[in-house]
Amino acid sequence: MATSTSQHALSSIKLLSTGCLHPDKRNCRVLSVSVGRRCPSARNLGLLCASNSQSSVIEPVQLPRSPKSGVTPKKSGESALILIRHGESLWNEKNLFTGCVDVPLTPKGVDEAIEAGKRICNIPVDVIYTSSLIRAQMTAMLAMMQHRRKKVPIILHNESEQAHMWSQIYSEETKKQSIPVITAWQLNERMYGELQGLNKQETADRFGKEQVHEWRRSYDIPPPNGESLEMCAERAVAYFKDQIIPKLVDGKHVMIAAHGNSLRSIIMHLDKLTSQEVISLELSTGIPMLYIFKEGKFIRRGSPAGPSEAGVYAYTKNLAQYRQKLDGIVQ
């Protein structure tokens, strides 16, 4: 049964899904991943990093160059990158393969999204990226409803010129009190092909545990007419490099609400995990992960502590100052 908080949150939010896997996404190149140091908490980030205050500096990224001048843009101080796997969905609860089927959150999933929002309520967010699937969009919107700045997350509609025009905001003051939410099919969950909608236990009984485990946990073997993790990684990481890293370079604070496999792919890129390490990576639903982008490097900071604890604010001076500023505004 949903809590009163969940019921209020659900009644306050109405989202429209914009689609699933891009129809042209079938032939995928092999993703080339350079291997660096092993992530010390790569086995269960959702649990281990939540209590681990150790930071890890990831190798510098290749900063994008200005298309006009060819000069690398000037780097600003530091930017926050928050990754959140969506809360529990109705098919998670039913133990069904979900993939790109567009199902909403359960009441428990709503509570997980709200709790995630409380954990990051003092961390700056300028722009939100989600997949095109409603469970990720709900998680992002519900989480931001807990933020102390009380800005309104607004999904941008650029599917057509008319959709763009009809969703325009004509008040500059209202724009300042809003956070853009950008949806992208490239951040969708891995497409499970002919497994979608099947019960996981019944599928194991039918095809054998070893075969199902190979489909689910190998890096480069897809299920029938579906995507492998490698294929999912290619689209997710390419989008991250092309669209999200430039925002971080510009000093924007970014939140990504997505899925287990698309986020695994991004973390594989950030932490330089091998194909064997990433298939062992577990991400809990509704647990935010924090990275700091500074001087071209990603610094992993684990999971933010609860809103009333010092936790994450001890990691950087800028985050501590941001919270102090919020305290002054709110109080």
What name goes with the CATH superfamily? Phosphoglycerate mutase-like
Beta-strand portion reads 5-15%
- What is the overall number of helices? 13
- Major beta sheet, strand line-up: 1-8-7-2-6-3-5-4
What CATH architecture do you see?
A: 3-Layer(aba) Sandwich
Structural class: alpha/beta
CATH topology label: Rossmann fold
Overall mean pLDDT stands at 80
How many structural domains can be distinguished in the coordinates?
1
Percentage of helical residues?
25-40%
Keywords: Glycolysis, Isomerase
Site (Transition state stabilizer): 259
InterPro entries: His_Pase_superF_clade-1, His_PPase_superfam, PG/BPGM_mutase_AS, Phosphogly_mut1
EC number: 5.4.2.11
Give a quick rundown of the structure.
Belongs to the phosphoglycerate mutase family. BPG-dependent PGAM subfamily. This protein has 331 residues and is α/β, with parallel strands linked by helices.
Explain how this protein is built.
Its EC number is 5.4.2.11. Belongs to the phosphoglycerate mutase family. BPG-dependent PGAM subfamily. The chain has 331 residues and is of the alpha/beta class. It has 13 helices and eight strands. The protein has an eight-stranded mixed sheet, sandwiched between helices. Helix 4 packs across helix 5 (134-144).
